[in-house]
Amino acid sequence: MKDDVFYMKIAIANAKAMKGQTSPNPLVGAVIVQGGEIVGIGAHLKAGEPHAEIHALQMAGEKAKDADMYVTLEPCTHHGKTGPCTEAIINSGIKRVLIATQDPNPLVAGKGVSLLKQAGIEVEEGICKREADRLNVPFFHLIQTDFPYVILKSAISLDGKIATARQESKWITGTEAREEVKRLRQEADAVITGVETIIQDDAGLIVKDSIMTQPIRVILDSTLRIPLHAKCLTDHMAETIICTSRTYDQKKYDQLIQKGFHVFITSGEHRTDIHEVLKMLKERSVMSVLVEAGGNVSASFLEASLVNEAVIYMAPLLIGGKHAPTFFEGEGVKKLKEAIRPADIEYSMVGKDLKMTMRFQ
To answer: How many alpha carbons lie under 13 Å from residue 282 in its C-beta half-sphere?
Structure first.
């Protein structure tokens, strides 16, 4: 068992290294061991490319016969852009497969394990299950709810402000926290913000100096107030979708369409319907979303119970000011018993800033 955990943790580490690259597919790592020696190792690199098991089998070659395979997620059984991994494993002569966690995808869910056992391969499940489950929280959430996984990020002062009363916000947190935010953006398939953030900060919402695909930029703009000279419309760094309500400005809509932008009209009367926005993103194979916005947009997601995880960086400074914006505005709760509470919370220090990671049911 001790060796099994060791090899599975190597598979998990390889899968984790691909974070931000495989969507809408899950993160998967595989290790093949023959006589106490690693003879094959692999990770799923990108959707449409070979799965982790195939990379490991190709590396192992003939040494895969009678070997053990450690894989972080149940091998697939269906034909998609690549062939089924179970078939390749069976044909390779692997004698034992250790699986960290089952795939909730109805196309797989238990079928991979069943096929391997029918072929006479010994199968063990549950090695490092908790770590493997944490790898693919967004993937599991999308499969089980049909909604992208939503992470809300904010940088605040000790008194909960995200800017001064004059809208100055650069920079509340330190460089270390800002570097982490770059990683959060890179790992997300889409970044959502409100038009007010574009007007006030001219936010580009890109990951600077990245060689990876930039996340889709989604601007919530109920009346289409977005300036045509905004950076997100003119820098050509990433796809931008403007989401609006039924009370949108027709003239601005025509201008945006003429310039080739995608404007998504929701059924909201005076506000952009964020449920419809998330459904639209799901149809575009978006698995995870990062919300980086002002207090009203953050409140709309929190009050609608659409936030799965909140990452808050709290800086050791006080801003004050009755009219300085906070990260959670909206209507607010009437009674303390109605307060939104996380299911669990983790604390850590990032430079001089306190990082709080909260997960919601």
So the answer is: 18
**Known binding residues for NADP(+):** 155, 169, 171, 197, 201, 222, 294-300
Instruction: Quick: pLDDT tens for 177-212.
Output: 999 999 999 999 999 999 999 998 888 888 887 777
Residue with tokens 């003939």: 62
pLDDT, position 188: 94
| Residue extent(s) of CATH 3.40.430.10 domains in the chain | 145-359
Q: Give the span between the Cα atoms of 102 and 83, in whole angstroms.
A: 19
Tell me: the pLDDT tens digits for 41-65? 999 988 888 899 999 999 999 999 9
Instruction: Return the pLDDT at 81.
Output: 62
In a 10 Å sphere around its CB, with 0-12 CB exposed, 13-18 middle and 19+ buried, how is residue 349 labelled? exposed
Closest among 149, 148, 150, 154 to 294, alpha carbons compared: 154
Strand 37-43 relative to strand 149-156, pairing: unpaired
Specify binding-site residues: 51, 76, 85, 155, 169, 171, 185, 197, 201, 205, 222, 292, 294-300
Specify binding-site residues for Zn(2+): 51, 76, 85
Residues of the chain with CATH 3.40.140.10: 1-136
Sheet holding 344-350, edge to edge: 262-265, 240-244, 216-220, 190-194, 288-291, 149-156, 309-314, 353-359, 344-350
* Catalytically annotated residues: 53
Q: Does domain 145-359 have CATH number 3.20.20.70?
A: no
Phi/psi at 16 (5° precision)? -60, -30
Q: Does domain 1-136 have CATH number 3.40.140.10?
A: yes
Within the chain, where are the H helices? Answer: 2-16, 52-60, 85-92, 111-118, 129-135, 137-145, 175-187, 195-201, 231-234, 250-258, 274-283, 295-303
Predicted structure pTM score: 0.88
